[in-house]
Amino acid sequence: MEPYRVLLADDEEEIRVGISRKIDWAGLGFVLVGEAENGAEALELAEQLRPDVVLTDIKMPFMDGLELCRRLKQAIPAAKLVVFSGFDDFEYARQAIGMNVFEYILKPINAPELNEVLNRLKAQLDQQRLERRDMETLRRRYEESLPILREMFYTRLLDGRIRPDQVQDRAARYEIGLPQGIWVAALVLVDAPRGDEEAERDELLLLSVRAFFQENFEWKDCSLRVILYNDSVALLAHLPGRDRIYPLLEELERLCALSHSYLGMTLTVGIGLPCDGPEGLHASVEGARSALDYRVLMGGDRVIYIGDLEPDCTARLSFEEEDQRALATAVKLGSEEQVKQVVRSLMARVREARLSLSQCHLFFLEMVTCLIKLARSSGAELTEVFGAGFTGAVSITDFGSLEELEQWLVSGCLKLRDVLGRQRTDSAWKTVEEAKSYINENYRNSELSVEALCSHLHLSPTYFSTLFKRETGMSFTAYVTEVRMSQAAHLLQSTGEKTYLIAEKTGYTDPNYFSYVFKRHFGMTPSKFRAGKGQ
């Protein structure tokens, strides 16, 4: 098992050497990866080494142990903290407990006591590691449950409980291939043999019907999914074209006739309207339910296609709040393909609904209005999105076909997506430049901190730190040190001021710490640098 990593921080070399030599690190399950002689050095080492455990003294130069603990809880929240102190002071202990420090140990430190603390630490870390392994076990169980999860996915898809823009992601999660193209849903109603009143609800009966369709469906040009859906069997067919719905009807009629001899029962199949993409299967299965309602008038043991009976059955169509949210989310945060997919899905509903021209126009205007609101809320110019001269007065009759209209919508959505993306990029760049300017103006202030800067910028420290590191390649602390050292070097070479004055002018209240940082940065002391050895 991999040992846990320990960082030791104490300004007394004798104590560091004693702890380092007297503890059987390997025997306890640990490895000492670094030592620091002050809190500032310990913080930098911790950010580099990412230790599991930090052992630190309370009283240290440049940054005390409690401040170090506070910083580490932000930078490495998973690290376990153990604090040493030569002062039996309740206030220190109270602050340490408030920062969720694992143990507070009074000096002088003896090996048995520290061994006991490390043993308890290891037990806690082992438990956490075991819990992580349990997550792997859960993942294996998840994979074993995939067949059930897939059935649940299909049920939610047909119930309309999965947003159109999430269908492909959910399908991929359950390793289900749902290609785009023409889909249609059908529902199979089982007439149980007389005298068996409970057979219709018998799961074994439904399983036999599912197996019957899986084994006997023979139309090679069509991919068929057969699933258990609520108390029935659902057929999801991927057609080679919208006009191939009638060959599917013929094959299903053959299977209904065959069910008498194979199953000894009567099957009735209701079929909905074809839809563009699996995202439309909810509407198609609703049509299949409506088709089965006609069974009373037309009799059982047959295939009933809703398109033959209600050519205008889905003529009512509205641009719902969920549609607005899906379109806006795709434009603001989605990929190019996701934007195209949402627009395609919306236009597919228009095609399937067989709407009148006026109804199509209303639906189209609602989509355009959604995009206009999104553009204006972000400050984007409408002409930049929709082209020169655009005023919002656009009509469906301006286009030669629904395909042309769809292309126009896709183009507008993608342009708006690019505008919003540039705005986010420009905003990040401006924020970082403003931060650099603030640092350059305030590096002389010893109280300069990421919290003060974020208060000035009106940003959270967590978001700013991530943004600054991504844009500059270095942390806030490292950048401030770089600016201060650059200014210190300039002053040493261009003026005769004392080192302690230069330290104050570059934000260091402690001349010794300034010299320590300068030597670490340039590899020599300020006096040697001034003497010309830094050239």
Task: Write structural notes for this entry.
This protein is an alpha/beta fold and 535 residues long. The chain folds into four domains: 4-141, 3-Layer(aba) Sandwich (Rossmann fold), CATH 3.40.50; 148-309, Reverse transcriptase/Diguanylate cyclase domain (Alpha-Beta Plaits), CATH 3.30.70.270; 321-422; 443-533, Homeodomain-like (Arc Repressor Mutant, subunit A). 59% of the residues lie in helices and 12% in strands. The chain has 24 helices and eleven strands. The strands form two sheets. Strands 6, 7, 8, 9, 10 and 11 form a six-stranded mixed beta sheet that branches. Strands 2-1-3-4-5 form a five-stranded parallel beta sheet, with helices on both faces. The radius of gyration is 35 Å and the shape is elongated. 27% of the residues are buried. The mean pLDDT is 85.
